[in-house]
Amino acid sequence: MNDTPPRKLIIAIDGPAGVGKSTIASRLARKLGYANLETGAMYRALALKAILSDVSFDDEAALVELARNSRIQLEPTSTGNRVLLNGSDVTQRVRETDVTEGASRVSVHPKVRERMVARQQEMGANGGIVMEGRDIGTKVFPQADVKIFLDADPVVREQRRLKQQGLHGSAGELTAAEIRLRDQRDRTRTTSPLVPAPDALLLDSTSMTEDEVLQKAEEAIRAASAKHVD
Asked: Which residues contact 209 (CB under 8 A, 6 or more apart)?
């Protein structure tokens, strides 16, 4: 009888802003008993550090140095990841507009991404993770057991984000514009652009409920688990 426990999987979830990656990744991680590694939060923490240190989002060398000297931790809780920057809880602060915009700008730099990707690979090397971001299946873990690319109509994504943040009027218009700008920046950057991995499961959630997306993801995970058993 083989008493060896099943190998824990690496699950990659990619997609643009406002598509629901964080929610799906969090729910999957809880159901599987896996860690949920939200890479976007790591870039937001770095952007916050740049703001606090008065470092330009365009200064690649200074940003790499900040990344080298910053301790960014993600601690799972029942309501999502707690983000710590050098020991301080910055969970709420990194969700604010200026930091989110900054994260999109710092993440375009190749050497910044190289530094962050190395850290992400280190964090997920032993499996048992659901890692979500924009280049997990293509760059961070191209060997992931399950790759899912979530997308949705841009207007729907904007509406979801505005509802999530309770925004309307001029504030809502500004946020919608920032999402469109971030989409363009993410999809056209030279290093690790936002594209589906060739072998990723593509899920268009435009007309799907959260539970329906979760069900499709779970089916893909069960299929991958069965392969390892065989």
From this structure: none
